[in-house]
Amino acid sequence: MQIIRHCGALKHHVTGLRQRGGHIAIVPTMGALHAGHMALIEAAKAKAAHVIVSIFVNPMQFGPNEDLARYPRQDEADTALLASAGVSALWLPDAQTMYPAGFSTTIKIAKLSDCLCGATRPGHFEGVATVVAKLFAQVRPDIALFGEKDWQQLVIIRRLAIDLDLNVEIIGVPIVRDADGLALSSRNAYLSDDQRSAACALPKALHDAGSAIAAGADITDTVGKARHTLTAAGFAPIDYVAVVDVNTLEPLTIFTKEARILAAARMGSTRLIDNLAIKLK
Ligand code: AMP
């Protein structure tokens, strides 16, 4: 596995891969790798001859009062993990490489970026869309893999790829969870033992609400109950619990087969997100 830190070396590496033939996949990450990231890499290897993983803690997607400074950084451990994962290259640019002096461009995906997480994290998805567009321009992948854990992000990236004719197939990978149901996340490392135990109320609340809605319960009532459950478990504030159309992210008040339940809430200072497909029984 090559560790690449500069655009020129990346271009050279990608040109070499193209000459060898076969598809190139990219797996964009912010590092602090866990089994969720590794599932994306495995899915990438099944689809493409060459897999490039990027690790970049993207300052553009963090708000002024968010956790950019304390976001877990473990490049050495990540590199060791990737070295045995069958990856062609690790793209490890620094902020100066990604955003040199004079950088002025921002990509905004209207509507999809403003709801759900976008409502409490203004500018977040502009940062995500901009960095992903840059990664696609740098690597020119045939395939890009994103986790369903960040459902809104996945929907936004699909829109980005279509709208800008990026010629990249976007693949969503199912959420990898701990044994108690909590979705793996680099941010879980912030949780104390007590908070970690309490946090499994989030997937449980979504699961219970999803089952109730699939069995015919009223969506508004059920979402209200899920919010109460989360509050009782110690989540505060609850940014949202919402049942939305999987593609448009429009809120649903009547169950359809395209429904997904999404939530974001804080456990202490740690903001957790999760989501689940609602499947008709
Ligand atoms: P991050 O490093 O948190 O920016 O995540 C990088 C990619 O890994 C994103 O596409 C995430 O959706 C995905 N990802 C993170 N956690 C999980 C998980 N538990 N299961 C599946 N994919 C995940």
Summarize, please.
With 281 residues, the protein is of the alpha/beta class.
Account of the protein in words:
Helix content is 39%, strand content 20%. It is α/β, with parallel strands linked by helices. The strands form 2 sheets. Strands 1-4-3-2-5-6 form a 6-stranded parallel sheet, sandwiched between helices. It starts with a strand and ends with a strand. The structure holds adenosine monophosphate.
Series of secondary-structure elements, N-terminal to C-terminal: EHEHEHEHHHEHEHHHEEE
Largest sheet: 6 strands, parallel
Give me the Rg, rounded: 19 Å
How much of the residues is beta strand, in percent?
15-25%
Helix segment tally: 10
Question: Could you say which overall geometry the principal axes of the C-alpha atoms support?
Answer: globular
User: Structural class, from helix and strand content?
Assistant: alpha/beta
What proportion of the residues is helical, as a percent range? Answer: 25-40%
Pick out the low-confidence regions.
none
- Bound molecule kinds, no repeats: adenosine monophosphate
Number of strands: 9
In what order do the strands lie side by side in the largest sheet? Answer: 1-4-3-2-5-6
Distance between the termini: 45 Å
Report the mean per-residue pLDDT as an integer: 97
